[in-house]
Amino acid sequence: MPDVSIDSPNSGFVISRLNSTNDAWYVGRAGMEYRDLIPGRLGGRFIASHIRIPDGGETQDYVHYHKARFQMIYCKSGWARLVYEDQGPPFALEAGDCVLQPPEIRHRVLESSAGLEVIEVACPAEYETRADHELPLPTRDVLPERLFGGQRFVRHRAREASWGPWRLDGFESRDTGVAAATNGLASARIVKAKSTVTAIDHGHAGDLLFLFILHGEIRIDSGWQGNHQLLAGDSCVIPAGMDYLLWAGAGLEMLEVSLPAELPQRSSLVSYSSL
Ligand SMILES: [Fe+2]
């Protein structure tokens, strides 16, 4: 009987390479340059972008908000000075830090260093951005527990973070607090390997598993999806149902974003091939 299982590997396996072409960058809002990390957008559900501001300085931004269900920003290098509604005075988002921007929170990018680079992951792929000309920032109130669309704002500081285990043995990870702040909708973690590690990932049945390599390298061997090496600046989406061998070199550091926060195991999918 042919394998017609719904969890068979599919075209949702997306690899994006930093050095594939210089044409990959395009200029967007407020002088920012974008590189699309999921060009197919996974049916309109997700967008991931590598964003940079080469020159730095004051940003031509204004108070605005986004009608997104999920949106997080990880600072890869440099810094940006940001201000958010009801979250206190402006602060610097520095390399290794991240923010969760809950739905419709008013915010503004004030300034950035030269060479700022961030990774943004959002759902859905296309969402509305609106200016707010009424609300000056910062606001007088500081309400860190305030819910925006059921989510709390998160400012995760790498400097204050502690490391714990990851879902695969041999790795360490630091949780950014996104899972708790979104009530399990999504998670964002930094994963590292101190020494060379090989592990088997038996696949997931979630909506998104996105990896962005920050330092070092990984190799993904997924049988008939092939053997792939990913270096710093490369990223991939591991689709539901794909099991693979993950090899990580010593010094690996990568950003992992998943929806939901706790990825359901692949075995929970119905496999018609076993009927
Ligand atoms: Fe924004």
Report on the structure:
This protein has one helix and 24 strands. By secondary structure, the chain is mainly beta. The strands form five sheets. A seven-stranded antiparallel beta sheet has the order 1-22-19-24-17-16-15. A seven-stranded antiparallel beta sheet has the order 2-3-4-12-7-10-14, with no helix packed on it. Strands 5-11-8-9 form a four-stranded antiparallel beta sheet, with no helix packed on it. Bound molecules: fe (ii) ion. Residues 64, 66, 107 line the site of fe (ii) ion (FE2). Residues 64, 66, 107 line the site of fe (ii) ion.
Keywords:
275 residues; 7-stranded antiparallel β-sheet; 1% helix; disordered C terminus
Question: In what order do the strands lie side by side in the largest sheet?
Answer: 1-22-19-24-17-16-15
**How far from one another are the termini?**
10 Å
- Biggest beta sheet attributes: 7 strands, antiparallel
Q: Please trace the helix and strand order, writing H or E for each element.
A: EEEEEEEEEEEEEEEEHEEEEEEEE
Low-confidence stretches: 1-10, 268-275
Shape: globular
- Total helices: the number is 1
